[in-house]
Write a structure and sequence with these properties.
- The protein is an alpha+beta fold.
- Helices cover 62% and strands 12% of the residues.
- A hairpin with a 3-residue loop joins strand 2 and strand 3.
- 17% of the residues are buried.
């Protein structure tokens, strides 16, 4: 029996000696794999780690998560050792900041591993509790520090402040480029519109504004897509909400449509004398929703474009020449030929009256109380009212001097006595 026991012990020794190299190789293999997965490497990118974690099974992820926890534990221990010192030198502050940055990055990577483990059915309650505790510990350590020191590690991390800073610089650069480009396009459109006689001032202003804003909008979309924002999804949301917005803004959209029609068909321009929507005055400004009219008594009236386009529009400034229509009445006992000569003299001597077309002065009507003459001189549009006032004033004075009466409505009452 004793010989048999010795024989068995020898066999077991041989088996153990033979298996030892295999076990050593397996341990070495695990160690190399851990290093290849970047355990403890704070500079590892999150997306790169996710790619490496994707093919791993639950047991492998469980082992890897514990390795990351141990690495994070060492970093936290280093921060605690520094904080235990009574006074921190500048070198200690630098080392602490470096460890805090490493810890933040390691904590992010550790949570990434935990998320993958949870997705594949692993139990990570203790690991998550440790990660939460360590994260809270960092806040407790830094409570007595300034705001800048508290968040400086985020500002200097590749996935934090540096990344967003680069994105912000890209967006700002793109917007500045498109702002300059929009200004250039606006100048080109202005010069082209000024050279063309087909565009009114209203349409010219509209084209200049819309070209500038369109370029800014394109720049905004390009800038948002550059920094990683899904512009297609944003446009889809805007398109879906457009129906609701259109229903809520029916009146505004009808004014907008009328404004476009006014700009295209150009019934009037800025500075024209018009009568529209029951309002008379000079056109001040036309936008896509309303028309501003400055009345002759210096009031500013804002008329919605749907009321402008849907009403009769009288434009007194379209033609460069206008006819002044006046009627003068004299008594039946007065000399009609002399009255006609006086009116012809007044019109002929006025400097603002045009020679062509010729003025028309004729006996026009035998009314109830007067003999009426029409007086129709032609003038420049801007001289209309001045000529009207001057001729009226001088005609009254000349008629009075010549003894020609200007009658007013009257009735003769005849009384007959009945016997």
């Amino acid at each position: 029996m004793r010989n048999l026991s010795v024989l068995i012990q020898g066999l077991l020794s041989l088996i153990f000696v033979g298996m030892f190299p295999l076990l050593a190789d397996e341990v070495l293999l695990d160690s190399e794999r851990m290093r290849s997965l970047g355990v403890g490497d704070a500079s590892l990118e999150v997306e790169q780690l996710k790619i490496m974690l994707n093919p791993m099974i639950r047991d492998e992820l469980n082992e890897l998560s514990h390795a990351w926890r141990n690495s994070l534990k060492k970093t936290v221990q280093n921060i605690s050792d520094i904080n235990l010192k009574e006074e921190l030198s500048s070198a200690d502050e630098v080392r602490k900041s470096a460890f805090i940055e490493v810890k933040l990055n390691q904590l992010t990577l550790f949570r990434t591993v935990l998320a993958e483990l949870k997705k594949k059915g692993g139990d990570l309650s203790d690991l998550e509790m440790y990660a939460d505790a360590v994260s809270g510990k960092l806040g407790a350590v830094n409570d007595n520090r300034t705001i800048w020191r508290r968040y400086s590690s985020w500002f200097t991390s590749k996935e934090g402040g540096i990344k967003w800073g680069i994105q912000l610089l890209k967006f700002s650069a793109i917007m500045m480029i498109f702002w300059a480009l929009a200004g250039f396009v606006r100048r080109v459109v202005r010069r082209a519109a000024q050279k063309s006689k087909r565009f009114s001032e209203l349409l010219e202003q509209f084209m200049i504004k819309i070209s500038f804003r369109a370029m800014i909008l394109v720049g905004l979309l390009v800038g948002l897509s550059t920094v990683g924002i899904n512009v297609a999804a944003l446009l889809t949301v805007i398109g879906g909400a457009s129906f609701i917005i259109a229903f809520a803004l029916q009146d505004t959209l009808s004014n907008f449509a009328a404004g476009v029609m006014l700009l295209v068909y150009r019934p009037f321009d800025v500075g024209d004398m018009v009568e529209v929507g029951g309002v008379s005055g000079k056109i001040g400004q036309v936008s896509l929703v309303s028309t501003t009219i400055k009345t002759f008594d210096n009031k500013v009236v804002l008329v919605p474009n749907k009321n402008v386009w849907g009403q009769i529009i009288t434009n007194s400034s379209v033609s460069t020449e206008r006819r002044v229509d006046m009627i003068f009445g004299i008594g039946y006992d007065d000399d009609s030929e002399k009255a006609k000569q006086i009116l012809e003299q007044i019109v002929g001597e006025h400097k603002l009256v045009l020679d062509e077309p010729e003025p028309v002065i004729q006996l026009h009507e035998l009314a109830d109380s007067s003999v009426n003459f029409i007086c129709r001189p032609w003038v420049k549009t801007e001289d209309y009212w001045q000529v009207h006032w001057d001729v009226l004033k001088r005609a009254k004075a000349e008629f009075e001097q010549a003894g020609i009466s200007i009658p007013y409505p009257q009735q003769d009452v005849h009384i007959h006595q009945v016997n």
